[in-house]
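Retro notes, item 3 of 5
We never archived the inputs for the pyridoxal-5'-phosphate complex last cycle. Fixing that now. Sequence and ligand:
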Amino acid sequence: MHDFRNDPRFQGVESFDKKVWLASPTMHGEEQEWVDDAIRTNWVSTVGANINEIEKQIAEYVGVRYAVALSAGTASLHLATKLAGEKLYGQARPYEGTLQGRKVFCSDVTFDASINPVAYEDGDAVFIDTETDTWNMDPAALEKAFELYPDTRLIVLAHLYGTPGKMNEIRRIAKAHGALIVEDAAESLGAKYLLDGGWAETGALGDYNCISFNGNKIITGSAGGMFLTDSKEDADKVRKWSTQSREAAPWYQHEEIGYNYRMSNIIAGVIRGQIPHLDEHIAQKKAVWERYEKGLSDLPVRMNPWDRERSLPNFWLSCCLIDEAAMAPQVRGEQDYLFTSVSGKSSPQEILDALAAFNAEGRPVWKPMHMQPIYRTHAFITAEGSGRGRSNAYIAGTGADVGADLFRRGLCLPSDNKMTPEQQDRIIDIIHRCFQ
Ligand SMILES: Cc1ncc(COP(=O)(O)O)c(C=O)c1O
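Structure as it came back at the time:
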């Protein structure tokens, strides 16, 4: 590990007394009152006023008719994916997934929770490359995937770091091919998108929509997630599945496989106290992104981009991408890495280690799913066709792989909404010193 504290480039830089986090929970006090209310009234299980209230409030905020509170965003994604599979291919045997052997087009640069449910349901994830305008699923690569696998009927799409993807194009492509969309808005609650001329919220843009209240998200319940839909039938089905699929009999009677995925009324109390602060958190995150954009503008880096005409992100994470010409050597193994310092250049691993040395937390851009050992045998489609095996020992040049490039040159900066401008100035200073 490089000794940044004794590196002359960092002379005079003071370590943060309290760690500056990538994204940590922000409690306001109301959370305690609603949790206390649940305990005082003895409604501490998976039924209660907090659950009812947050389902109503989130449905209203996002602009959908129904919301089902669940134990995690992952639970929501699982049931959304299963519901899509059942709609497309019918009910599966108890020991089989609804997507058995079926291809599903998936976001590539995302957290694995977005797309693992495809495997839970025995489906075959095909990873779709990323575009450079918003760092989300590339519509051109999606079109190419439908050319290669025309029978595919399901798309699982995430909005990375709170920045909406190109939903007009993706919804148009899905419609043209009769495909359904599972929308993973776990990172993007509160982000808006200009959908065919009218503003809409992420979480309302797919056929089955999911959000998360994980501890690092824009608002949190300490854990939790929600399934969002305009269909009463789908909402009822997800609620039933999430509470062990009980039939209307006096005894435990089951005609479908069940899950224990419902949210507790205590967790819902935390979320109930957070919802009034959602817009305030978004404003704080936006200010963080804008201060980075200004503070890093003289460096050979660019901030994570967004479509300024058609979207308004929630700015959950601020990221930067180092220009190719300013990349210092950096190599990564499966679990380790090496970098060298070069004057005028830097690398994500150098910056992340420098930040860590002074007690601030960043993270590499999410490693693309097609590069993950578990998914290496799965197809990966770029705008040019298959992204696998593109190099040729006898011909120079290889095809583009946008996700791999973002992972190599990009990093997530400390983006905590409680970070002060003074703390952020110090982080910006540390990043400048990396390029000295
Ligand atoms: C894009 C994305 N999808 C899904 C999840 C899973 O949500 P949860 O942690 O609530 O299960 C997360 C984060 O945790 C995420 O970032």
